[in-house]
Design a protein that fits this description.
Elements lengths: L2 E3 L6 E3 L15 E2 L15 H4 L22 E3 L1 H7 L4 E5 L9 H14 L4 E6 L2 H13 L2 E7 L4 H8 L4 E5 L3 H15 L1 E3 L5 H17 L7 E5 L4 H15 L8 E7 L4 H7 L26 H10 L3 E5 L1 H15 L5 H15 L9 E5 L25 H8 L1
Parallel strand pairs: 5-13, 6-7, 6-9, 7-8, 10-11, 10-13, 11-12
Antiparallel strand pairs: 1-2, 1-3, 4-5
Helix pairs in contact: 3-4, 3-7, 4-5, 7-8, 9-10, 11-12
The structure holds pyridoxal-5'-phosphate and zinc ion.
Length: about 400
């Protein structure tokens, strides 16, 4: 039986996928690694195969993969010049099969579900995780059920619905729904792999390993990540911690978690030096993918960020929308508003004199702008109209 551990009270528990939280501290439980000798298998094809020794799977079945991971890291040299930045790179997770980092978690959690004998899986999501979970369920031949909030846009519902899950628009509080999903899963035999699922978190470690390999076997000084429920950044930190444990790294990068000011429960607790966060009242931000007023991994993120010398930062909608346009029109990278928070945070650090001249940053770009085109304000993008016969004159004027 797999063991899960609590990083707060250090106790271990047998795996129960319907209750992946510490019975004493209520914090998310994480996988306790059993493999003592681990190495990267760089001659293999899939990311899950390359990092197999670090994953809690008895064996990798390539049929469950959609070729996620192995995403590029791109130097942002034009923004670097514009803003006088030290070396800055983007790890582009938009290039995953369903256009977000969630696929790295889904591929591991779905294989785990199959190995545990589940025929049905589920998740609750406002967008990216819905599409990712439904796609990997389809690939594995599992039934899936997706609960979405009642205000989820039609575009997002279709982007998940196309994979054939049972989709339910749910009225009511998202936090209540989060807990209810586990209970429904327990009674109906559905593995709800939600945002801080311990096997999703294991999948996110691969991003840390790839960053390490792509930076020539070194860690950057800063890894900057958008944070909502907390699962992604917990996985990234765990990945770097395991590299350190195995002697690959002398020290860890500083992790900067970024939230939108209009929904920033973890950043607010960090600023106020509180040990735990409290629910954020009246969340309001255009960065819908990271708008969670009551993040289930929030306290664990606070603890890990503090222990590793990082910080939580909040940026305004104006700052993140400006950063989104900068990434697109200076670097050719169109990400969603949630991802753009990381550039806004870097520019904030630079402005505050907090970046050393030689410190290297990796911005983790978590989701594609193509899924959130409706969030671009139309007055920020100019276009002209002309009859074909008038084009010559118009071009002479405007180009
Ligand atoms: C694009 C994007 N970025 C970041 C996040 C935050 O990830 P987490 O909830 O694991 O903190 C999400 C979560 O849905 C997301 O969709
Ligand atoms: Zn505990």
């Amino acid at each position: 039986m797999e063991r899960l551990g609590c990083l707060v009270c250090r106790k271990e528990f047998d795996l129960n996928v319907h209750s992946p939280f510490c019975p004493e501290c209520a914090e998310p439980l994480i996988v306790v690694s059993k493999k003592k000798v681990r190495k990267f298998h760089l001659d293999r094809n899939l990311a899950v195969e390359v990092f197999e020794d670090y994953l809690p799977l008895d064996k990798i079945d390539p049929h469950f993969s959609l070729q996620e991971g192995d995403t590029p890291i791109i130097e942002l040299h034009r923004l670097r010049k514009d803003f006088g930045l030290p070396p800055t790179f983007a790890k582009n997770e938009c290039l995953n099969p369903t256009a977000s980092f969630k696929d790295r978690g889904s591929v591991v959690a779905v294989q785990k579900a199959v190995s545990l004998g589940f025929k049905s899986i589920g998740t609750i999501s406002t967008g990216n995780m819905a599409g990712s979970t439904a796609a990997y369920a389809a690939k594995a031949g599992l039934k899936s059920v997706i609960f979405v909030k009642e205000d989820t846009t039609n575009e997002k519902i279709m982007a998940a619905g196309v994979y054939g899950p049972v989709l339910v628009k749910v009225r009511g509080d998202y936090g209540v729904l989060f807990r209810a999903s586990f209970e429904i899963g327990r009674r109906q035999g559905i593995y709800f792999m939600n945002s801080v699922d311990p096997f999703r978190i294991e999948g996110y470690k691969a991003t840390a390993f790839e960053i390490f390999l792509q930076m020539e076997s070194r860690a950057p000084d800063y890894v900057i990540v958008p944070v909502s429920a907390g699962g992604h950044i917990i996985g990234l930190i765990k990945g770097f911690l395991e590299l350190k444990e195995d002697g690959y790294l002398p020290h860890l990068p500083a992790f900067i978690g970024v939230q939108a000011k209009g929904c920033s429960p973890i950043a607010r607790a960090f600023e106020r030096k509180k040990p735990t966060f409290s629910r954020f009242p009246n969340p309001r931000t255009v960065a819908h993918a990271i708008s969670n007023p009551n993040p289930p991994g929030g306290n664990l993120v606070l603890k890990l960020i503090r222990e590793t010398g990082g910080a939580m930062i909040a940026v305004s909608d104006a700052e993140l929308l400006k950063a989104q346009r900068l990434l697109a029109d200076r670097e050719g990278l169109f990400c969603d508003p949630a991802s753009a928070t990381v550039l806004a945070a870097l520019l904030k650090l630079k402005k505050g004199g907090k970046l050393g001249p030689r410190s290297t940053s990796v911005l983790v770009i978590t989701g594609s702008g193509l899924k959130t085109v409706e969030d671009l304000s139309s007055d920020s993008i100019d276009y002209h109209e002309a009859a074909v016969g008038d084009l010559e004159t118009l071009m002479a004027d405007i180009f």
